[in-house]
């Protein structure tokens, strides 16, 4: 059974004063995983404030942004896709799905839970197209209960993340975009890192291409930090549209199950123009 994830989000910003901005956003996600279709549904609303710290003519501009999200989540399992030992028919040597499974919590879903996230980002703009950024966030601050059984003792671990990167022009047309992300949730650790190369024609209707390689590390029980996958990325930018395609190559022990085959991901992004023409004061991630 393939994993399926659907998500949609919208955010907008408003000028507050001369160089500062406030923003709000809303997002929703539906995720399905595994034969039993473990499903997660989440809706969040959020707000942020962007403050210019320094900057001016011939000087790098420094900004800091703080934001928070508040939302609700709920998880469930399609219990009709599971069978248990009590349903095994020794005569036919197959499970009898019509027989009672005897599980006291079969059919239970998680209760709707409250979820709170917060984060901080610093970045600086230099030259015509250069920028550098660093930030961190804490998710599931309240560690909500997500138990599928009546005792409701299972909680969602809080997760913290740190990330950094930038765009460093090499010439008028070529730039390097390195980046790194580190996350920890409960006993799980993950790190993603790599670099894209961006080529642009610098025309009024800008046409640009990106290509790069990224790696993912994860901790394994009793084995420590190990490489999990390598991702090849390609993107095409045209004016306000960006089309991306990536492919994961599995390099961990999961290769025994999928023969090193990963998954394709396709993204399409549109950048809506502002109401008035002004210099962009945030990086193009």
Molecular structure report:
The chain is mainly beta and 285 residues long. It has two domains: 1-75 and 112-156; 168-285. Helices cover 1% and strands 62% of the residues. The protein has one helix and 15 strands. It has one helix at residues 255-258, and strands spanning 4-16, 20-33, 38-56, 59-76, 88-89, 94-95, 113-126, 130-139, 159-169, 174-185, 188-200, 207-220, 224-238, 241-250, 261-270. The strands form two sheets. A 13-stranded antiparallel sheet has the order 1-2-3-4-7-8-9-10-11-12-13-14-15, with no helix packed on it.
List the helices and strands and how they pair.
Blueprint: E1 4-16, E2 20-33, E3 38-56, E4 59-76, E5 88-89, E6 94-95, E7 113-126, E8 130-139, E9 159-169, E10 174-185, E11 188-200, E12 207-220, E13 224-238, E14 241-250, H1 255-258, E15 261-270
Antiparallel strand pairs: 1-2, 2-3, 3-4, 4-7, 5-6, 7-8, 8-9, 9-10, 10-11, 11-12, 12-13, 13-14, 14-15
String of helices and strands: EEEEEEEEEEEEEEHE
Strand tally: 15
Give Rg in angstroms. Answer: 23 Å
Query: Largest sheet, if any?
Result: 13 strands, antiparallel
Distance between the termini: 32 Å
Overall pLDDT confidence: 86
The fraction of residues assigned to DSSP E strands is over 45%
Low-confidence stretches: none
The general outline is globular
User: Considering DSSP H and I runs of 4 or more, what fraction of the residues is helical?
Assistant: under 10%
* Number of continuous helical runs: 1
Number of domains: 2
